[in-house]
Write a structure and sequence with these properties.
- The protein is mainly α and about 120 residues long.
- It has one domain.
- Helices cover about 70% and strands about 0% of the residues.
- The longest helix has about 35 residues.
- The radius of gyration is 17 Å and the shape is elongated.
Length: about 120
């Protein structure tokens, strides 16, 4: 496979590897690479997209878990299976996105998700 020249990075890594690593631990590694990378827009874009996507999914998962706890305390047990299903879907979506985004970053693609990709692109310019 032919590799694209994605430019130099301030971390000393290949840009596609740094972009992939910005997704490894979700928003946390996105934040780390966004702060470390000074020059490469490809890496900064993927780091910002990682922070936005996985940060939002993290907040939604925490919120759903809190709602499950609140419904359990209020003895509204009939809502727990619904929220558990939604939480499970969030985990599945997170995993699928995680794999796809890491693959696309490693392949050197500027793969933009709807909404989050547009926001990330504006932040990197």
């Amino acid at each position: 496979m032919e590799t694209k020249d994605l430019g130099k990075t301030s971390t000393g890594m290949q840009a596609n590897v740094a972009a992939l690593l910005s997704y490894v631990l979700g928003w946390l590694t996105g934040l780390i690479f966004f702060l470390l990378e000074k020059d490469n827009k490809f890496v900064k874009f993927h780091a910002m997209q990682s922070m936005i996507v996985f940060g939002a999914l993290f907040v939604l998962q925490i919120g759903a878990g809190m709602l499950i706890g609140m419904f359990a305390m209020m003895r509204l047990g009939f809502m727990i299976p619904v929220l558990s299903f939604i939480t499970g879907l969030l985990y599945i979506i997170s995993f699928i996105l995680w794999v796809i985004l890491m693959i696309k970053a490693y392949q050197g693609e500027m793969f933009k998700l709807p909404i989050a990709g547009d926001i990330a692109e504006k932040q990197v310019k």
